[in-house]
Write a structure and sequence with these properties.
The chain is mainly β and 321 residues long. It is built from three helices and 14 strands.
Length: 321
């Protein structure tokens, strides 16, 4: 008879479980997209609400019924595009050709660029080398109630199947502000990249879900039964031990955008709890997303997008809390 044992606790895919170095986490992979457009956006987590919509999906058991779900509000002030980065193929992977900036000195000053070596018009000289373009954008938290004054500088992918079309597109938007409605629409699927709430240093019961031992076992209840095998005579890195919980960078795939709207129809009296009044445009995402309120959230076009796009007819939105 096989020996009975419990399954392993804690996925090794999330190692190392250490604190994130920054809220502004880098997005390493961007999806392919045939049309020239931005592939991502950024905002600030504001709160949650109830959404009621009419289900229209043909295979859903709730087709034709009203469904109530929880939604997360992400305030999305406009992004200022101040430059573009061009990459080329090499035997060692993609390498940076250079950064090309807007001509307007006021835009560069606002983005904190002291000296621009190359302007965006010089992209035409490198068309034959370019394999990928990414724009440099600046968030504007001063339009929100987060209390931040300085915006985050982020890098966003650019879609397109032809380099010429991509170059012309970025030349048009560099130096201008982009709204979330120019990038996403209701019913799109997005990946959410953020830093989770920090829980501090915790033991193995909370960190990995280890079973609490009976009182007479060893005199200690909230610990691991053993730290590994006799040989090799070392404690391996896979052993369950106490440590940091939360404040990790995480990516949640295929989140549905339920609604996009203006500030006027979302605020309750006094604003959202622990956030304040939503002053700019916002996005409502189905379900919950990682991170505390007022924290930077990045949205990316879905990398593993479902086959069909959802068309939700929202009939009611509660005031956010």
């Amino acid at each position: 008879m096989p020996k009975a044992h419990s399954s392993r606790k804690g996925s090794l895919a999330f190692r190392p479980r250490k604190r994130a170095s920054t809220h502004n986490g880098r997005i390493r992979t961007w999806p392919g997209y045939s049309k020239p457009c931005l592939l991502g956006f950024a905002g600030y987590k504001a709160g949650m609400l109830h959404v009621i919509y009419n289900e229209t999906h043909p295979t859903s058991p709730n087709k034709g019924k009203e469904v109530m779900i929880a939604g997360t509000v992400v305030e999305t002030p406009p992004l200022l595009v101040y430059g573009v980065r061009a990459y080329k193929h090499t035997p060692y992977g993609k390498k940076l050709i250079g950064a090309f900036f807007a001509k307007d000195d006021a835009v560069l000053k606002r983005a904190g660029v002291k000296k621009a070596k190359s302007m965006v018009d010089e992209l035409d000289k490198h068309k034959e080398q370019i394999c990928e373009l990414r724009v440099l954008a600046l968030t504007n938290p001063s339009l929100t109630t987060t209390g931040k004054k300085r915006g985050e500088r982020i890098e966003l992918g650019v879609g397109g199947s032809k380099i010429d079309e991509m170059v012309e597109y970025v030349k048009q938007i560099v130096g201008k502000e982009i709204n979330v409605g120019d990038v996403f629409s209701k019913g799109d699927y997005v990946d959410v990249i953020g830093v989770t709430k920090g829980k501090g240093w915790q033991g193995v019961v909370k960190r990995f879900g280890v079973a609490i031992q009976r009182r007479k076992a060893t005199g200690v209840r909230r610990h691991v039964g053993n730290l590994g095998s006799w040989h090799p005579p070392v404690v391996e890195y896979t052993a369950l031990q106490a440590g940091q919980v939360g404040y990790h960078k995480r990516t949640v795939l295929n989140n549905l955008i339920v609604d996009l709207g203006e500030n006027s129809d979302i605020n309750q009296k006094g604003g959202l709890l622990h956030y304040g009044v939503v002053k700019t445009k916002y996005v409502v995402i189905k379900g919950s997303i990682p991170g505390a309120k007022k924290r930077l959230i990045k949205l990316r076009r879905a990398l593993r997008k479902p086959d069909s796009k959802r068309e939700l007819k929202v009939t009611y939105k509660s005031k956010a809390v």
